[in-house]
Amino acid sequence: MTIDTDPTFRQATRDDLPELIRLFADDSIGGHGDTTDPAALPLYESAFAAIEASPNDLLFVGVVGGEVVATAQVTFITSLTGRGTRRMAIEAVQTRADMRCKGIGARLINHCLDIARQRGIALVQLTSNAKRPDAHRFYERLGFEKSHAGFKLRLEPVRAST
């Protein structure tokens, strides 16, 4: 590994939120509309609170030298298919641009896989933007196989009337 300090991985805390928002806002490919605009902070705080409260979600950060440099969220899904197979979905994987290609992302994904094994998960799945061929090669090197086509449908959120 070419970094000065080995990364450590832990569950994210509310104090990590500003660094996580910056990580996502710096992603020019994802197209998620993330922003560091202070007006958006309540939306991120609400999402973080929901993730933190969910028994089926974990949000991890990778830390090097006291700085958050990577993140991944995992969600546990119980499905009737596969005779009740328990699955883990890995989402929102991001490594800070200046920390890529240093083994941090691979170690973060392996951390997620260790959690899956500890919980008896039978299948781990993830999606990756079609515009990210480098990420696809990364996941394939870690043993993931392309197996399904993904589809999205954006909906307008229903706003509560006042």
Structural notes for this entry:
This protein is an alpha+beta fold and 162 residues long. It has a single domain, classed as Aminopeptidase. The protein is 31% helix and 23% strand. It contains five helices and five strands, in the order βααββαβαβα. It has a five-stranded mixed β-sheet with strand order 1-2-3-4-5, sandwiched between helices. The protein is globular and about 45 Å long. It starts with 7 loop residues before the first strand and ends in a 21-residue tail after the last helix. The model has no long low-confidence stretch (mean pLDDT 90).
Helicity level: 25-40%
Mean pLDDT: 90
What fraction of the residues are assigned to beta strands by DSSP?
Answer: 15-25%
Question: Largest beta sheet: what is the strand line-up?
Answer: 1-2-3-4-5
Order of helices and strands: EHHEEHEHEH
Q: Distance between termini?
A: 55 Å
Number of strands: 5
Give the CATH topology: Aminopeptidase
Runs in which pLDDT lies below 50 for 5 or more consecutive residues are: none
Q: Count up the helices.
A: 5
CATH superfamily: Gcn5-related N-acetyltransferase (GNAT)
Assembly form of the protein: single chain
CATH top level is Alpha Beta
CA radius of gyration: 16 Å
The CATH architecture: 3-Layer(aba) Sandwich
Q: Any idea what the shape is?
A: globular
